[in-house]
Amino acid sequence: xxxxxxxxxxxxxxSRGPHVLEAERRRVKLVRTLGPAGRALVADAFGVLAxxxxxxxxxxxxxxxxxxxxxxxxxxxxVMVSAERRRLAGRLSRPESEQWLQQAASELxxxxxxxxxxxSTQHPPLGAPVSRPQRGTHLPLAAxxxxxxxxxxxxxxxxxxxxxxxxxxxxxx
Length: 173
Fold this sequence. Notes:
mainly alpha, 7 helices
């Protein structure tokens, strides 16, 4: 995750603890399991954290910011995965989506409601299930993430609208 060109720090100090490494393992497993949809959900979780109500550090403010945020990102992403799986299977109604949103905001706490609401607006319930090309493949892609490029940045992948995120020029960093 470190793509810094800053040569003042030669390495990133990982002494913050094993919880960061465990979060990275969970991220890799999520992306391996869900494929491109997993990458999009991780980017969306960063988007939820970018909301000013979270008061989280912004990506780009420090080389270690992604590491600081990753445990929270993975907690948010795992909550979002449950709703996205049901949505893509056509098993998420509007009332169920609202119920999920209230439960998720309560579970995640500390100002997550605004970002989660922005995310759920971009991921509305579908009338019919999205079919997978074949059984056992990755989670299918559907609007708003119909294309996920391998080299896209978080701000390009996230569907959480910038105008909702914060009243700052670059909410992601």
